């Protein structure tokens, strides 16, 4: 499929599954090399990272654990902005090497909030693995050590990423077109 329609928008294929897998294999190799002996715990951020995490983890050969977290947005009583809270983390990450597994880092604000929140649980170190990064959009300083791919500032779907809940199931990545 070269193009797909989701609700009011048309998307064209921009990164094929074969090329995504090649980069995931590269990132897995780097993690296997860098984190050997560290017994890391991977935290997959749902929903978007489920497909990336599944393919990445199949290539991780060092002893490790995987767990799944969600970020719940709510409006704080004292704040006008949205606050994101990490939910679903039952494991004790004290003194652990943590690898956050994300679908995409856009402005980086979500990742920053996640790191802040996990930081209060006294991990030994936190690493970031993200399927995609939009470097032009980053507004905070983040050390994204394990980025599979960098993309321009366009809205995409597929390989776990959605538009209004749809499109996560596609094995390729699609970029929105101007025509809508
Ligand atoms: P950030 O806080 O601006 O870095 O946003 C990160 C979150 O926004 C990701 O975890 C995605 O859920 C969502 N997001 C950002 N860009 C896209 C995109 O192009 N397609 C689908 N979701 C996106």
Main sheet characteristics: 6 strands, mixed
Ligands, deduplicated? inosinic acid
* CATH architectural name: 3-Layer(aba) Sandwich
What's the number of domains? Answer: 1
Shape: globular
How much of the sequence lies in strands comes to 35-45%
- Taking pLDDT < 50 over at least 5 consecutive residues as the criterion, the unreliable ranges are none
Report the C-alpha radius of gyration, rounded: 17 Å
- Quaternary organization: single chain
The span between the termini is: 17 Å
- Quick one: CATH class? Alpha Beta
Number of helices, where a helix is a run of at least 4 consecutive DSSP H or I residues = 3
- Assign a percent range to the helix content: 10-25%
Number of strands: 10
Q: What is the CATH topology assignment?
A: Rossmann fold
**Adjacency order of strands in the biggest sheet:** 5-4-3-6-7-8
- Helix and strand pattern: EEHEHEEEHEEEE
Class inferred from helices and paired strands:
alpha/beta
- Average pLDDT score: 94
């Amino acid at each position: 499929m070269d193009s797909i329609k989701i609700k009011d928008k048309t998307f064209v294929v921009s990164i094929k599954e074969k090329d995504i897998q090649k980069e995931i294999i590269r990132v897995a190799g780097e993690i296997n090399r860098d984190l050997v002996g560290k017994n890391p715990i991977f935290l997959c951020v749902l929903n978007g990272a489920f497909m990336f995490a599944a393919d990445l983890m199949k290539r991780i050969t060092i002893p490790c654990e995987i767990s799944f977290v969600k970020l719940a947005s709510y409006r704080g009583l004292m704040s006008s902005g949205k606050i994101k809270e990490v939910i679903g983390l039952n494991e004790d990450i004290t003194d652990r090497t943590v690898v956050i597994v994300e679908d995409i880092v856009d402005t980086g604000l979500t990742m920053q909030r996640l790191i802040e929140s996990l930081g209060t649980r006294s991990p030994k170190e936190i690493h970031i693995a993200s399927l995609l990064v939009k470097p032009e959009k980053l507004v905070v300083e983040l050390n994204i050590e394990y980025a599979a791919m960098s993309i321009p500032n366009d809205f995409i779907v597929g390989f776990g990423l959605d538009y209004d809940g749809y499109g996560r199931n596609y094995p390729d990545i699609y970029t929105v077109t101007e025509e809508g």
